[in-house]
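Schema walk-through. Below, the input block comes first and the output block second. Nothing else is stored per chain. Lengths vary across the set, and this one has 163 residues.
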Amino acid sequence: MHQTNLVQVTNILYQLIKGTFKDHLVDWVHKYLLQTHSAHDAQCILDDIDHRIAIVAPFTGLRHFPQGRGFKQWTGDDLKVLMKVYIAAIEGHVTVEIIHTFHAFLKFCYIVRKSTISKHTLEQLQDAVSRFHHYHQIFLDTDTISTFSLPRQHSVSHYLQLI
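--- output ---
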C-alpha cells in the first residue's frame, strides 16, 4: 500500500469508527430500545448497559469507563476501547441480528487495521461488509431508522477499493 493510500485509509477508518460505530450503531441501539420498550424499561436497560461497561474488569491497555457510555468527549482511543466491550454490554438486551451487525462491523474494522492484506484477507473483508449490510436491516425493519442513506456507512462498501 502506498503511503498516500495508508493515510487515506487511516483517516477513513477513524471516520468509520466514529461515524458508523458511535454516531450510528450505538445511537441506533438507544433508539431501538426506545422503539421496542416503554421509556422507563428502555432507560433501565440503558442503565444496565452503562453498568456493564463500567464494571469491565481492569486489563492492561483497556480504558475503564466508570460512567458507562455517557461521556461528552469521545477520543479515537475511547471508541476503540468501547468497541471491545460493547457487544457484551448489549447482549441479552437486543436481538441477535443487532449483535451480528456489531460483530460484522467490528470484524471489518479489525481486518482493515491489519498490517498485511492478502487475497484471503480481502475475501474476509468482503464477507464482513456483506454480513454488516445484511444484518443492519434490523434497524429498518423495527422502524428504528428510516434510511441507510448515510455517507459514512456507504463508504464501508467502497473501502476495498482503497486497499
